[in-house]
Each structure stands twice: as C-alpha cells, then as structure tokens.
Design a protein that fits this description.
Shape of chain B: globular
Largest interface: A-B, 59 and 59 residues
Shape of chain A: globular
Largest sheet of chain A: 7 strands, mixed
Number of helices of chain A: 18
Strand content of chain A: 15-25%
Distance between the termini of chain A: 63 Å
Strand order of the largest sheet of chain B: 2-1-5-3-4
Oligomer: heterodimer
Number of strands of chain B: 5
Structural class of chain B: alpha+beta
Strand content of chain B: 5-15%
Distance between the termini of chain B: 46 Å
Chain lengths: ~750, ~160
C-alpha cells in the first residue's frame, strides 16, 4: 500500500504553549486509513460466516407492563425458526454492568420497564422467513402505570452532594442572587454504523463474538455471567467499528448476549444487525437533565455562592447512570473558583429506554447550564462575559467542590484568551451589540457571537482507574518485531495510529516497526474500556512505561542502543514481553465514601466562541463559525487531535440546535434518520481548533485526553450567540426554531425536552 | 432475472429479482462490501455509488433500474495496493476517522472532481451534503477534496 508521508511542518500552536524549538518527527498517517479508504476494512456487516443464520429481537410496545405470555401463532410453521426466551438463558438473566437490574430478556411474569425492551429472540436461515416469523410472535401483557418525568419519579438510581464553604452564609452575603432553570433532552450518538454483532459457537461449548464495540471486556464479562462460560470459553473480537461516541460502550453487551444465546441454540453463527430504526428505538441516549442554579454575586462581580441542583433521567435501568451523574455533578459549577458551593445531583428512573454513555458523559448537560448561567449573570451585572470569566476562572491552587487543589496544568485563562483573540470576540461583540441597537423593526435576520468555557476531568472519576487496574503489554517477538497488546479499540479517534507512535518514540525506532495485536480477548489483556477520553492518557502512558522497561532491558543486555540491538536480542533470547499495570498517579487521592479529594488527576480546559445567524421570521439558527481552544496536556498527533475537536464541536452544534428526540408514551417518535436530524456539511460551521499544551506531570507524555472536552463547551456558546443576536435566552436545548420563535414572539413554547407525552386516552 | 452491469469497469452479469436493492447486489452478490449501509432510506449517503457517473444512494435503487449501466464503487478507485489522488488526500488531511462514511464520501467527492466545478468551500459542502459524517465535523473532508482538486488541476505544488 503506498503511504505518502506528510511534510514535516511545524505545529500551528499559539506561541509559548509548546516546548520551544523542540523538533517533532513527521506525523504518522492513520494506520488503518488505506483499508478504510479502499473499502477493504471489514466492519461487522462485511464479515462472512458461511451458513450463518439471522437473528432478530421481539420488543415491547408499552412503557410499563407485566409480561403474561409470549404467543407463537400456531398457524405459522415454526419448525425452521429458533425461538429463545428468558427461560433459555443458561446463566443469570442479567446484563452485567454496575447493578444487576437489567435482564437480558424480560421473563414471563416479569415487568416490562420501557418501550422497545427485548423480550424474545428469533433466528432463521434467511431474512425473509425471519421477518414473517416476527409478525407471528406477539406479547400478552397487562399494562401498568408509567412515569416519564424524572422530577415526578420517586425511584432514585443515585445521588451525590458536594459542599464547600457555607452555602447559606454565601447566599446571605451576596448582593444579588441570580436564579436559572435549564433543561436538556436526549441526544442520539448516531454513529453511522449501526450496532452489529455475530456470534459463533465454539467447539468447547463457548461462544466467540465479532462486532462493533468500544469495550471488548465489558462484553466478555456479560457473556460469562449470562451464559455460564469460563474466561476461555468467551471470546470477544472487535470488528472495524464505524463510530461509537459512547453509544458502543455498554449497549453492545446486550446485542452480543442476544446473538450468543441464539447461536448456542442454532449451533451455527448468528448475525444480529440492527437497522437504523431499531438502533435509534432501542439503544441508549444522552441523559436528559434538569438543572437549577442559584448564584450569589456581589455588585462588583465577585462570585460568592453557587447552589446547584441537578436531576438526570436515567431511563428504565441503571446502566452507567451513577457514573454519568457523578461526572455531571462534579462539573456542574463550571471551571470557577467559588468559596461557597453546594451541588446536589440525583438520577431518577423513568419508563423510557435506558440512557447511557455519550461523549461528555454528564458534563455537557451541566456545563451548558453553568455557562448559560454565567452569561446571564454577566448581562445582569452589565459586565462582559469575557471579563467576568477572567476574574472567576480557576487559577493554579484553586480548590474545586470536591476539595481538590488544582496543582498543575491549569489553563482555563489561557484557553479563554486564545479563543477570544482568534475569534476577535471583543471586536465582533461590539459590532453585533451596535447592530442589535440599530436593527429595524422588520429585520429578517440577526447575527450574534457567544462565548463559553469548560473543564473536563481527565480519565475515570475518583478511584475508577485504581479499581480498573488496567494492563497494557508490549512484546518483542522472536522474529524481531514490536507488538502492542491492549484491549483499547479504534473507532475513528486514532488509537491504532498514536499507540505505535508513542511506543516508537519511546524506543527511538520507526512506527512502521511496531505492530498492533487484534482487539481479541483471547490475545490482549484487559486495558480497561475505551471511554472517558482515557485511552491516549492512561493506556498510552502504560505503553510508554512498558517501552521504557523493554528498552532498558534490551540495552542492558546488548550494550548498544535499542534500535541497533533489539533484533539481535530477539534472535538470541527469543521473545520478550513486558506487562505494565496501572499505578495510581502520584499524590492523587479520592475518598469514595465522602466523595472528596482528587476527583481527577487533572483537567482539560476548553473555550469556544460561536457566531450565529438567526432567521427572525422562522427562528432557524445557523451556526456560521466556531473557534475552539483546547488545552489537552500534550498533543500526540495534531491532525487526530484536531479531528476530535472538530467532530466534537459539530456534535455539540447539533445538540444545541437541531438534535431532539420527541417521545410519545415513552417511545421515541423520530426514530429514523429521516426524522432525527444531524448536521450535514451545509449545516456545519467553519470550525477552527487551537490546541494548547501544559503537560500533566503524572503521565509520561503529559497527555490529558481530548475526546470529550470539545463536546462540553460549544452548546452554551451557541446559546450565548443566539442571545447576542436576539436578546432572548434559550434555556431549554435544543434551540429549535420553535423554541427560538417562542422566545422572540412570546408564542407558546414547545414542551420541555426529554419528557414523553402521555399516550392519547 | 439476469441483469448486465459494468461494475468498476468489468462487464458483470447478476441473477437477481428486479426489485433487489443495488446495495445488496453489490455487497452480497458481488462481494463488494466497501459500499456501506447506514440508514436504508437514502438519508446518510454511506451507500453512495456512481451510476453512469452520477452519485446515487444504492439503497434506494432497484437493480432493474440500472440494467446496462456503469457502476463505480470505492473498490474501483485505485489499483489494489494503491490510492488515487482523492484517497491519498483523505489520508493526509485526516478526512477519514471511523471510516464508515468514507467510501460514500469518496464517491461524492469523485463526482464533484469530475464535474470540473471550482472547488470553493461552499461548492464542496454542497457536493457532500447528502453524505453524513459524525466524526470529522466535515472540516478535513472538505480540505481533502479541495487538496485533491488543486493537485489534479495543477494549482497545488505537485506532490507525488
């Protein structure tokens, strides 16, 4: 495969943000790029398994009901179809994750908790027969009352309370208390490749699954539990994965379990390929949230108290909700030093499909609220939102609501200045303010500019990484190649490119000498899930340490440099494997019981400036420009890092303006790509990303992660720009034409996002 | 029924019901799995192929409609082991991330390059408006098409 090399150009970073004069080698090209660009890359649906059957899922059509029975039409010939129900599950009927509340299939006599819940599985040798068979399987149920509004729900999945200082005293000392209420709805990850899994029976009675996924070892654990398999009997292999964004963190366990149960019964491979409609109907979404702020400030603009309440809608089962809520709660105040803080977060159960992981993981919801609140306070105090943030943003030594002292790599002020400068924020804002004052009554459109700031804790929250105890391995093979062994998946973000790059840098060899073992649980160790922007920082750090150890060992034995001696070392001594397990970052401690301490080893920092045009007749918002400045510790691969900022920013533009799921009776109404809209190239703004570096000393390369940070910051910048254009605050996301028009004209607003309408009587 | 197509320059006959989707004929009958299915209803463009040079969603086209037509898919863009101008530009600029929209995006890009239109940002955005990408924010895809166009027309410094 011809692989043109990139010119060795200097990184376009703001002056002084990168070790000056440090030469960097040319960036490696995307490792699996040529296969993706020629159509050779094999995604799950491209894999061929001769003799494979097709699997399908019979789902509930009610939000809450007792399952009385599954009726198979006796008039239909079932002899060529395999049917699997909860009674056929050999192990525990549990999708293993945080809690054991979610069944693999609803058992007869049990309760259906949400629409599109899996109840029964079918497999057939061809798709036409399968489609017909599905029409002849019906559920007998007794409907139960459903609850859709998390504020009315009495069933709590999790809660957290963070306190710093004295909230009552702080509010009492304030000259002004600004109140605000914010609401955000569901968001669909909308990876372009639907969920897909193929299960293949193994001769040892076990199961091998191939599919689209982020976390092979989550699926491995789920298979062992529900199918009663040993470690060796459950084998999980990642196929090329067409996007994840969190949507393929936990859900793939369910589809893998279903395919595996069918394959065991059929005795042949079974393909489970969701179409887009099934994927949107049944899989997890970003948690809807309601956030209330009471912020105490002095007349001269000091922040003295933040009282914040967060309620998230977990949907019907716990899935990852406590962890999402935890991150949302910790980030809810925004990146601002405040002496008196109280943040109370709770996640409630509703009879809607479970919500789960999605890029940002709770933080985009609460940071939208925090930033819009800050922008509204700036308006109230008649201060520039930029100037107010300059005063409030954390500096080194700042103390967060969990009591964490921000000791290093604190760059909120720097990203603020970088984005403001690159976007010419002050100049444009002065211009739009004047234009607004002079606007004619019958103007049809208006332009505005808005700014927002965000922080994002790096890696898992609290003691998460300690509990995971991830392992990454490096092997010098007997034939003199270097091989990386991790369970970290490539889903577009660049894992397969940056891992060889990091190892090659540490060994001072070419990345071309470094191979990657397939993400197959029978081959690679458990490096933890590919989530939480942790892969480059945590697993990349483990690989560098493994490479350093390997290098020392080889150089000690051979006397020369690693590059000169590793092949002869392998020829003489055979293969050498180094396993590196996660060790806590120095000086980082967290108390799970009191929820205090270092919630994260460090934070990433981002500032976005958005420019919008609002159609005053229709309420339609066009986001024309986004400038995002992101401080991520260390930029490993500039093109891939920019790709994360650009892609995350556009997902946030969609979240801010058009992406909304409407529900009726707990079911998603717009469960197709024709009705759930994401931005096209015509809707997308120009996105300029500025990358800044303040290396984190706890990671050998200083990287802090970049995947989620851009998702946190753009939506509030867009809403601030809409306000700058129109004078109206949109406090419910997304800012659809209906909501914008309602704000402009006083016409009735559509209902709150994320709350299902009741079924018609 | 028997249908005669020219697929990536090769005269091909397929036995298929007339209403079978061109997408399924390509992927399942001819083994050309580079063309992807994202939505099955013509919204995402992951299944884009060229039919007599025009970009179409192959999930919306029954095979009976393309009898005698020239079909071009991602597999036909370059010789095995090689990349064409546009593919190489995607690789360099970072226009492919997860890669699932890439084959369709490339076909839309090829049709645009073949049109001879000036590769302004606006024109390129419009040319790929029927192809959804969830990873890139489109920025680097647009860069790739503009770069390939510049190299093709010789306005950029030629880089082998």
């Amino acid at each position: 495969m011809s692989t043109p090399t990139l010119p060795d150009t200097p990184l376009l970073l703001a002056p002084g943000t990168i070790a000056p004069g440090r030469a960097r080698p040319a960036l490696p090209l995307r490792r699996e790029g040529p296969e993706k660009l020629t159509g050779l890359a094999k995604y799950a649906d491209d894999l061929v398994f001769p003799g494979a059957w097709y699997g399908s899922t019979v789902r509930s059509t009610e939000p809450h009901a007792r399952l009385l029975g599954i009726d198979l039409d006796p008039a239909f010939d079932w002899s060529k179809v395999v049917v699997v129900t909860a009674a056929d599950i050999p192990g525990e009927n549990v999708v293993a994750l945080i809690q054991d509340d979610q069944p693999v299939l609803v058992p007869v006599g049990g309760e259906i908790q949400h629409q599109a819940e899996p109840v029964c599985l079918l497999a057939a040798p061809d798709r036409d027969l399968l489609r017909v068979a599905k029409r002849h399987a019906t559920l007998r149920t007794e409907r139960l009352p459903a609850i859709f509004d998390p504020l009315l729900s009495t069933r709590e999945f999790a809660h957290f309370e963070l306190t710093k200082g004295d909230i009552e005293a702080g509010l009492a000392a304030a000259d002004i208390v600004v109140e605000g209420e914010y609401r955000v709805g569901h968001q669909e990850q909308l990876y372009i490749e639907n969920q897909a899994m193929i299960a293949v029976p193994r001769p040892d009675g076990g199961i091998e699954v191939h599919g689209s996924m982020q976390c092979p070892y989550y699926i491995h654990a789920a298979l062992k539990r529900a199918l009663n398999l040993t470690d060796a009997q459950a084998v999980v292999i990642q196929a090329e994965t067409g996007g994840g964004f969190g949507g393929k963190e936990e859900y793939p366990s369910i589809i893998a379990l279903h395919a595996a149960l069918l394959a065991q019964r059929v005795g042949k491979p079974v393909r489970m390929m969701y179409d887009r409609h099934e994927d949107i109907s049944a899989t997890t979404k970003r948690h809807p949230a309601w956030v209330r702020h009471r912020t105490g400030v002095t007349r001269d603009g000091q922040l003295v108290a933040q009282d914040i309440e967060v309620v998230m809608d977990g949907g019907a089962y716990v899935t990852l909700t406590p962890v999402v809520l935890s991150r949302g709660t910790i980030h809810a105040g925004g990146p601002y030093e405040c002496p008196n803080v109280r943040i109370r977060g709770r996640a409630m159960a509703t009879n809607t499909p479970p919500n789960g992981a999605f890029r940002g993981f709770g933080a985009p919801q609460t940071e939208f609220a925090a930033e819009t609140q800050v922008n509204r306070i700036a308006e109230r105090l008649d201060l520039s939102p930029l100037a107010l943030r300059r005063r409030w943003v954390y500096r080194e030594g700042g103390v967060t609501p969990t009591g964490q002292v921000l000791r290093e790599s604190v760059a909120g002020l720097e990203v603020l200045e970088a984005a403001a400068q690159a976007s010419e924020y002050e100049g444009v804002a002065a211009h739009t303010k004047k234009a607004r004052a002079q606007r004619a009554e019958d103007a049809h459109s208006a332009r505005g500019i808005g700014i927002a700031l965000a922080w994002h804790g790096a890696g898992f929250t609290g003691s998460g990484e300690v509990h995971l105890a991830s392992v990454a391995s490096l092997e010098l093979t007997a034939d003199g190649r270097i091989r990386i062994l991790t369970a970290s998946t490539e889903m577009g973000q660049g894992t397969k490119t940056i891992f060889p790059q990091l190892v090659a840098e540490a060994l001072e060899i070419s990345p071309d000498e470094v191979d990657i073992a397939p993400q197959d649980t029978s081959i690679v160790p458990d490096s933890g899930p590919t989530v939480a922007s942790r892969t480059a920082m945590v697993v990349g750090g483990l690989l560098i340490k493994a490479a350093q150890r390997m290098r020392a060992q080889v150089e000690e034995a051979g006397g020369g440099s690693f590059a000169d001696t590793y092949r002869s070392f392998a020829a003489e001594h055979g293969s050498l494997r180094v396993d590196e397990q996660f060790q806590p970052y120095p000086g980082v401690t967290f108390d799970d019981a009191t929820y205090t301490g270092d919630a994260y080893p460090c934070f990433g920092w981002a500032c976005a400036v958005a420019e919008v045009e609002v159609d005053l007749d229709t309420g339609e918002v066009t986001v024309r420009d986004v400038v995002s400045a992101d401080e991520i510790g260390h930029v490993i691969h500039q093109i891939m890092a920019e790709g994360q900022v650009e892609g995350g920013s556009l997902q946030a533009v969609g979240y801010a303006t058009i992406e909304e799921l409407k529900l009726l009776d707990g079911r998603y109404l717009n469960d197709r790509l024709a009705t759930y809209l994401i931005p096209t190239a015509m809707d997308a703004p120009r996105i300029t990303s500025i990358l800044l570096e303040h290396p984190y000393s706890g990671a050998p390369h200083g990287a802090k992660g970049v995947g989620e940070l851009p998702m946190d910051v753009v939506a509030p910048a867009v809403v601030a720009a809409i306000h700058d254009a129109t004078g109206s605050w949109i406090c419910d996301l997304p800012a659809t034409p209906e909501r914008v028009l309602a704000a402009l004209t006083g016409s009735p607003a559509p209902g709150p996002p994320g709350i299902s309408a009741e079924r018609p009587a | 029924m028997t249908y005669r197509l020219t697929v990536n320059g090769i005269a091909t006959q397929v036995e298929s019901p007339g209403m079978r989707r061109l997408l399924d004929v390509l992927r399942e009958d001819l083994g050309l799995t580079g063309t992807k299915e994202g939505c099955g209803e013509g919204e995402c463009g992951a299944c884009s192929v060229l039919v007599d040079g025009a970009v179409v969603d192959s999930c919306l086209v029954p095979v009976c409609q393309v009898e005698g037509a020239r079909i071009d898919t991602v597999e036909g863009l370059a010789a095995v082991g090689d990349l064409n101008l546009l593919q190489a530009a995607f690789l360099e600029t970072g226009g492919a991330q997860c890669g699932i929209c890439t084959p369709g995006m490339l076909m839309a890009g090829e049709a645009f390059l073949a049109s001879g239109m000036e590769a302004t940002e606006e024109a390129v955005r419009e040319a790929i408006a029927g192809n959804l990408c969830r990873c890139t924010g489109y920025t680097k895809i647009i860069d790739a098409i503009v770069l390939a166009d510049a190299r093709r027309t010789g306005t950029a410094e030629a880089q082998a």
